[in-house]
Specification:
The strands form two sheets. This protein has a five-stranded antiparallel beta sheet with strand order 1-2-3-4-5. β6 and β7 form a beta hairpin. α1 crosses α2 and α1 crosses α3. It has two domains: 105 residues; 110 residues, Yope Regulator, Chain: A. The protein is of the alpha+beta class. It is globular, with a radius of gyration of 17 Å. Helix content is 34%, strand content 21%.
Length: 224
């Protein structure tokens, strides 16, 4: 995957993160008691929804999917405007301390090209995680966690996931994070939480599955 416009990538990621926490997760938690989100074509969406409606971020827009399947969308401008369009109260309350500010009026810059890069990365990661879990005989749906905006799953006390980038790595990356910490410090276990590989080294879903598989093998080997 080729990354372009790194500044706009960070800006777009940051805007997506704020909407994920203070619109989608906030509304869903208030309505259904869960912050879990999921990958959606072009972005991400709620899992349980809000009063029968699904909320999604698709590119540079907030999309509301009504119970009958009809859709309406509005450009992302501010958290307050997105929440008003969805008919929900902005601001995450009653769960973890949000990672992003909940100012409803701060502009949300979203670059369409950067959004496509992030959406494609999420789609690759989601597909790889599903395939990896199936190969282990533990099929499960990956979860997009709004706190870090990463999509992941846990198998045998090891987290496997796909991040759009953060304070540790500017670029999108995949990770393997044993709950007990990395079993070694080497070329594979290269991060404080375990292992990471950036998007420029992952071309296909199979590459991602291989990375997760290597992490699984090395973690199992360290226990013997």
């Amino acid at each position: 995957m080729t990354l372009t416009t790194p500044q706009r990538l960070v800006e777009t990621r940051t805007s997506w993160h704020r909407v994920a926490e203070h619109v989608l997760a906030a509304a869903q938690f208030a309505d259904a008691g869960t912050i879990r989100l999921r990958i959606w074509p072009g972005g991400f969406a709620t899992v349980r929804g809000v009063a029968g409606r699904q909320l999604a971020v698709v590119g540079d827009a907030l999309v509301v999917v009504e119970p009958g399947g009809s859709r309406r969308a509005t450009p992302l401008t501010t958290v307050g405007a997105a929440a008003a369009f969805a008919g929900v109260t902005p601001g995450l309350r009653g769960t973890y301390a949000p990672a992003t500010p909940d100012d409803p009026d701060t502009p949300l810059p979203v670059d369409a090209a950067a959004a496509r890069v992030l959406a494609d990365w999420y789609a690759l990661g989601d597909a790889a995680l599903r395939r990896f879990a199936e190969r282990l005989g533990q099929p499960q749906a990956p979860v997009l966690w709004p706190e870090h905006l990463d999509v992941g799953l846990t198998v045998d006390e090891v987290n496997y996931g796909c991040s759009p980038g953060d304070a540790t790595f500017d670029d999108p990356y995949l990770y393997v994070g044993p709950h007990d910490g990395p079993p070694a410090r080497d070329t594979f276990w290269n991060a404080p939480f375990g292992a990471a590989v950036t998007a420029d080294r992952i071309r296909r879903v199979d590459d991602a599955v291989d990375f997760f598989g290597q992490g699984r093998e090395l973690t199992d080997r360290s226990k013997t």
